[in-house]
Amino acid sequence: MKATMENTYLEPSYRVDKRSFTKREHNRFVKLKGVRDWSGVSWDQVGRPFEVTRVSKEKKEWELREGKALPVHASWEMFNRSFHEWFVKDVPDSLSHNRKKIVGEALKLHLTSSVEAMNDHLRLHLWNYVHRIQDGIWDPRGKRELFKGLDVKKPRILFLGAAEGYEAMQLAAMYPGSSIVMVDYDPFCKDTRYEDFPGSYPFLGENPDTGGMKVYHKRDFPTDYVISDIRELSYAKEFDIVLSVGLLEHFPDEHKPEVVDWHRKFLKPGGYMILTTPRAQWKSKVYYNLMADVMNHTYRELMTVEQMGLYLYENGADILQHGYIKVHNGIIAKTR
Ligand SMILES: C[S@@+](CC[C@H](N)C(=O)[O-])C[C@H]1O[C@@H](n2cnc3c(N)ncnc32)[C@H](O)[C@@H]1O
Questions:
Q1: Are 271 and 242 in contact (CB under 8 A)?
Q2: Among protein residues, the one whose CA lies closest to atom 4 of ligand 1
Q3: In terms of CATH architecture, what is 30-44+138-281+298-335?
Q4: Cα-to-centroid distance, 76 and ligand 1 (Å)
Q5: Pocket flag, ligand 1, residue 258 (CB < 6 Å)
Q6: What are phi and psi of 26, to 5 degrees?
Q7: Distance from CA of residue 248 to its chain's centroid?
Q8: pLDDT tens sequence across 223-249
Q9: Taking the domains of the chain in order of start, what are their residue ranges?
Q10: How far is the CA of 279 from the centre of ligand 1 (A)?
């Protein structure tokens, strides 16, 4: 029987990690604060984001068949179904199944299928390493570092493009008494990605009774999941925190001001905008290249935290905290 009191262990599809960083790990995986004065930063200095141009087979085939560009909403529907499949994979089981397939097809001299199975195998190993071993995607320790220290009590949290909702739940664990509104215009995100998110996954947060740590689960967070285009929301300025994870980099520059504005529109005065985007590092370029069929259905950029900060700063945000964790940049800002 698994010792669930352990602080970190591997489940078939993901890692559980209730540890805090040691000082050494912190120095390796979390870098916060670099720019002191954003008014002195220019696009000439920081350059432009890197556009990921390798797209999925599914998108290419759709466009060839239909003779037009894949509409953005449909591209998100493809992405969410494709990405979700990987989150629910039993990785050790899939690896062993694939090994048998590679050998079996090669013995039958079905070389094309054997090579396809090898490619799947490579992707599975990469996924196992990035998501399950390194925990780079959910990165609970990094997210907790990024989200700590906000001056909020029982906050109302709005999560834009919420997908499975992970980061809002991590925030809610850290700030007891939170209530969450998740918004995504793909119903699959509510009905499957959020619904299938493991109820046993432990989110480490604060115990309001003792001030110590406490483990929370999905069912502990009062959550309203709204299926809507963000552009059609009509809330008042009623949220303490507006959050997005992997949203800004999917919009070309002409739309960036509007996306920044989405984060400001429903914030209470003094509320926090929290955004993260994937980092422009060589490892991420390799990842999005090898995982193109799984991940690349929509427009996508990789950016540095300086580029991300400049998009926010020049669109009226005051940056309180910026930096990066394993695979994402993170910024906490207020309206200027
Ligand atoms: C890249 S995902 C966020 C990354 C997420 N952490 C994940 O694991 O997939 C962005 C999400 O935003 C949603 N989205 C994009 N544009 C939207 C819009 N205008 N209104 C509502 N949801 C939107 C997509 O459906 C998608 O689920």
A1: yes
A2: 246
A3: 3-Layer(aba) Sandwich (3.40)
A4: 7
A5: no
A6: -60, -45
A7: 11
A8: 999 999 999 999 999 999 999 999 999
A9: 30-44+138-281+298-335, 71-133
A10: 17
